[in-house]
Structures are given as structure tokens and as C-alpha cells.
Task: inverse folding
């Protein structure tokens, strides 16, 4: 049986750590984005079939418009409803009515999402580079197939991750908000 050098195994272990860290960064970014969205709408219910938000006291925040520059849908309560509300002080300091902004784009289309994805891809490319160097150093027998398999696997993950980094859409989607 051919001897397997320890260097390719260590490189594969390091690759595994880098891939795990990249995955953890993606998960944390998505999780914090979802949490921030829930915080902004805490206590409010979205009525998807009628396209409005309902506040804890039952008042409606109707769609006020779409801001294509900021890529958000704005929902707003009527000022006279908010200004006479008993919990207004805990909800908003605006005399123009409570407003909720809902992003049109997915997490990945945001700047912070693109940043997280870029860091993840960088870590994956580092892992691929380490594997490629090891493949050049150990290009024979079982080690070659082992390292080539790892390199191809990382390449597939990088390609799938990079696909989501395309520029954000030009047209506004007219669907209900995520939430």
C-alpha cells in the first residue's frame, strides 16, 4: 500500500477549518440580519393577503411607497392614529405616524451581505490555494486524487457562492415583504 504523507492530510484539515469558518460567517451574517428585521417589527404582524402591517393596538400601517434608491418598501400608520395611541411613547417619537421599512432585496443584495459573502469566498480561495500548492508538491498516486477531490469540492462551493454576488436587480419586485 502506498505511503500517504502527513502534509496533504494537514492541508485537508486546515481546508476543513477554513470552510467551516466561511460557513459560520455566512450563518452569523444571515442570522443577525434576520434578528435586526425582527427587532424593527417587534410586536407588529404583517397581513400578507392585504399587504399591511398591524400594530399591537390593531392600527394598520399601509404601504406608503417604494424607495428604489434605498431598495425598501415603506409602510406608515396614519398620524392621527399614532398620535392618540396610548403606547405611542414606546413605539415612535414621530408625529407623522410609525413607519416600517422592509427591504426589497435579499440579505445577500445588501452591502453587509456582500461583505460577508466576500470574506467567505476569500477564505474558500485560501483553502483552494493551499490545496493547489499541496497538489503541485504531491502529484502522484493516492495523494493526487485525494487533493484533486478536495480542490474540485472547494471549487464547486466557490462557484455557488460567487453566483449570489452578482449585482442587485434593477427592477423593483412588487411582491410582499420578507417577514
Result:
Amino acid at each position: 500500500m502506498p505511503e500517504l504523507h502527513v502534509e496533504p492530510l494537514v492541508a485537508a484539515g486546515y481546508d476543513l477549518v477554513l470552510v467551516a469558518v466561511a460557513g459560520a460567517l455566512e450563518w452569523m451574517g444571515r442570522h443577525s440580519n434576520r434578528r435586526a428585521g425582527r427587532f424593527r417589527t417587534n410586536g407588529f404582524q404583517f397581513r400578507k393577503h392585504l399587504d399591511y402591517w398591524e400594530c399591537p393596538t390593531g392600527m394598520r400601517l399601509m404601504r406608503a411607497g417604494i424607495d428604489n434608491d434605498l431598495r425598501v418598501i415603506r409602510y406608515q400608520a396614519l398620524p392621527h392614529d399614532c398620535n392618540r395611541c396610548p403606547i405611542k411613547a414606546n413605539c415612535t417619537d414621530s408625529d407623522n405616524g410609525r413607519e416600517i421599512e422592509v427591504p426589497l432585496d435579499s440579505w445577500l443584495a445588501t452591502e453587509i451581505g456582500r461583505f460577508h459573502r466576500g470574506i467567505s469566498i476569500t477564505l474558500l480561495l485560501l483553502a483552494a490555494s493551499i490545496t493547489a500548492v499541496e497538489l503541485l508538491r504531491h502529484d502522484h498516486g493516492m495523494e493526487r486524487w485525494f487533493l484533486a477531490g478536495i480542490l474540485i469540492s472547494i471549487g464547486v462551493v466557490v462557484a455557488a457562492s460567487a453566483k449570489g454576488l452578482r449585482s442587485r436587480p434593477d427592477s423593483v419586485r412588487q411582491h410582499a415583504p420578507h417577514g
User: Anything to note?
Assistant: The beta strands are 45-47, 52-54, 60-67, 72-77, 99-103.
